[in-house]
Amino acid sequence: MRLIVKNCKVFKKDTDTIYVEDGKFADKFDESKADRVFDAKGATVLPGLIDMHVHLREPGYEYRETIATGTAAAARGGFTAVCPMPNTDPVCDNPAVVSGILKKAREAGKCRVYPIGAASKGLAGKELAEIGLMKEAGIVAVSDDGKPIANAGLMRKVLEYASDFDVPVLNHCEDYSIDMEGAMNEGIVSTSIGIKGIPTASEDIMIARDIIIAEYLGLPTHECHVSTKGGMRMIREAKARGVKVTCETCPHYFTLTDKECESFDSNFKMHPPLRTEEHRQAVIEAIADGTVDCIVTDHAPHHQDEKVIEFSLANNGIVGLESSFALSYTYLVKPGIISMERLMDLMCYNPSKLLGLGRGGMEVGDDADFAVFDLENEFVFDKEKMLTKGRNTPYHGWKLYGETMLTVMGGNITYEKLC
Amino acid sequence: MGLKNKDLLGMKQLDKEEILEILDTAKTMKLVISSGNKKTSHLQGKSVVTLFYENSTRTRLSFELASKYMGSASANITTSGSSVNKGESLLDTARTIDMMGTDIIIMRHSQSGAPHFLAPYLNASIVNAGDGMNEHPTQALLDMLTMYERFDTFEGKEVAILGDIYHSRVVRSNIIGLTKLGAKVRVYGPKTMMPIGIEEMGAYVANSVEECCEGADAVMGLRVQLERMQSSLFPSVAEYSRFYGITKEALDLAKPDAFLMHPGPCNHGVEIPTDVYDCEKSVINEQVTNGVAVRMAVLYLLTARRNSL
After folding, report:
1. Rg, Å, chain A Cα set
2. What pairing do the DSSP bridges indicate for beta strands A116-117 and A141-143?
């Protein structure tokens, strides 16, 4: 397939046309030879985005999401690669499940899928999973996501053993022993509305522990969806000391606060929980100063029956793939907090580097992974238009910039906005 | 006349004028209760359903009697004898009750925000009879009625509340309501049961039972659940009553005309020694009567609003 995208602005390039041939970026060819010419009408071409922290729910929870629907949602968000977490049923803790996920992803053909394997068998936090064999099957990292690696001894062994295979370790950083069955951030709001609180100390304790172990061993660790001021401070200081610690955060931690929980709407319920304005500002500061390496969504589709219920009983998490770029662009780039270059580091180059994906290139001969975004016109985010099965978004009705017009993965159109 | 909102979800949703209107109406209702003929027609032709997902003696019975005294058709559902036991969701259960033409649903639920979650889905007015650790507005209103009968004004009055503050919806509703009327609330209890940021709600956190009670106009004890020992919130009953119980000596530090309250049910000898519970300063039994009066007032004012629409 030969594709031309014309009348576009291209990230870091002085051209207004993109040529694609045989799945790769190509040299200029005549429009008459193209199978498809897409008129971008002045929209902006960016490298295909990479989300290294999503939940595609398959196998086991197909009523929430399938690999097909999840990757279609990813394409609609401008993503060309996603990394699904292993908390499926069966757990992705062996090469057979990894192969199954990859097969389904190829069949769907909407987005590159790089699975993350479990760090421990069954996510039970007791014995090492088959990290080497899973790496051969195609995983790019290990994590017990959702379940922190609570035991410090096991965390040490995971970091050591995974490093033999150059497999990054991503840890969900919360110490549940101090959570007291909390359902939201502990603070003035949780006290006022009588919801049991999760202290920021829960996250800070785990980040501190991981940094200590990583520093002691001289091995890398990656801290998932960091939401606290203290966590960001410790990671900043550790990086400055030369500790090999990296981290990610999510759009909800820089766009929302725990004040939203006053509505008892479970679309504001997730782990770690939404924090106070002070922490939201600290997350933004850490994004701006380079402490944060990646923006991820923690895309967590749930069925309505698991979300449209009593707040404390509702499942944790929100969908994010279709709002991530627009939120990041609207709340970080548009107000001038970070540059578009920095946003592409956060949403493409850094995840690619961290996981060794070799993605993000836009030179002739590189895989044609890119997306076209309308950065000029405001649009209203509509949950009914989402391609994910989940409807659990807190952003319905939000006015944003950065709507996806077109997504191309390996030279194939994986999403196109219908006018 | 009547309340501004369809539902009574909490003291957070009431303003000063509404609170005073409820209290004044309740004073009138109290006359009905004390009269020989406990029958009015305020709720005639209306239906009231109590839906209780948690145990209750006082709250549920007083709501039922209140609605019956005022002539409504009333029914009650408990979780044990209903489809809730078959796994029906809260929303489905509430909608089912709603669709039977119910005017007012009175609900108690273990989850904070459960009535707030339901309210937009229902035609019926929903009255929060206690939601998790969040609010118990009619309890606060009956507590305030008990004070209102003794205070000339709430302005500047000092109310001491002692016990398990963290888990108490009664405390939250009282702090919010009393603060709106210009009173001041002091709280005291073990740090393990003191929620972070309670000062921001307008409460002063005292450092001892004595400090909390000293010079107070009213003293309220809260039930401490003995199961809390298993979560390491306090070590033993003996230790709790020794350091956190409301002793006669502590009560004597309050103003001479101060009185002792408790929302019930009380653990005698734990949060309050039995002789103090029964002392002349105790108004605990009168609170129960006021509970019926306040609930009559709430049902009446919600109905008046519904009738005016």
Report:
1. 21
2. parallel
Residue A68: other Cβ atoms inside 10 A? 19
- Kindly tell me the number of DSSP H helices and DSSP E strands found in chain A: 13, 20
Domain B137-284: which topology?
Rossmann fold (3.40.50)
Distance, CA of A419 to chain centre: 28
Cα B21-B22-B24 angle, rounded to 5 deg = 65
> Residue B125 in contact with residue B149, Cβ under 8 Å?
no
A58 part of contact set with chain B, CB < 8 Å: no
CA–CA distance, A315 with A331 (Å, rounded to integer): 27
Q: Nearest CA of chain B to the CA of A303: how many Å?
A: 14
> Tens place of pLDDT for every residue, chain B, 309 residues?
679 999 999 999 999 999 999 999 999 999 999 998 999 999 999 999 999 999 888 999 999 999 999 999 999 988 777 777 778 899 999 999 999 999 999 999 999 999 999 999 999 999 999 999 999 999 999 999 999 999 989 999 999 999 999 999 999 999 999 999 999 999 999 999 999 999 999 999 999 999 999 999 999 999 998 877 778 899 999 999 999 999 999 999 999 999 999 999 999 999 999 889 999 999 999 999 999 999 999 999 999 998 887
Exactly one of A51, A145, A210, A298 is catalytic; name it.
Answer: A298
Distance CA B219, CA B202 (A): 17
* Cα–Cα nearest to A244, from A314, A293, A185: A293
Q: How far, in Å, CA of B214 to CA of B1, rounded? A: 39
Answer yes or no: do B89 and A309 touch at CB < 8 A. yes
User: Residue B172: is it exposed, middle or buried by C-beta count within 10 angstroms (0-12/13-18/19+)?
Assistant: buried
Pairing type for strands A399-409 and A370-380 reads antiparallel
Closest CB to B117 among A194, A199, A310: A310
CATH architecture of the domain covering B11-135+288-308: 3-Layer(aba) Sandwich (3.40)
Interface residue B204 vs chain A (CB under 8 A) = no
Interface A-B: count of C-beta contacts within 8 A: 66
> Is-same-fold flag (B11-135+288-308; B137-284)?
yes
**In whole angstroms, what is the distance from residue A323 CA to residue A342 CA?**
18
Tell me the torsion sign for CA atoms A395, A398, A400, A405.
Answer: positive
Domains and CATH numbers, chain A: 47-359 (3.20.20.140)
Nearest to B91 among A199, A308, A311 (CB): A308
Q: Which B residues in the span 101-130 are in contact with A, Cβ-Cβ below 8 Å?
A: 109, 111-114, 116-117
CB-CB under 8 Å, B117 with A311: yes
Identify whether the C-beta of residue B169 lies closer than 8 Å to the C-beta of residue B132. Answer: yes
Q: Do A188 and B200 touch (CB under 8 A)?
A: yes
Active site annotation includes A305: no
User: Cβ of B134 under 8 Å from any chain A Cβ?
Assistant: yes
State whether A191 and B114 contact (CB < 8 Å): no
Restricting to A residues 161-200, those with a Cβ less than 8 Å away from any Cβ of B are 180, 186-188, 190-197, 199
List, for residues A15-26, the tens digit of each pLDDT value: 999 999 999 999
Q: pTM (2 decimals)? A: 0.94
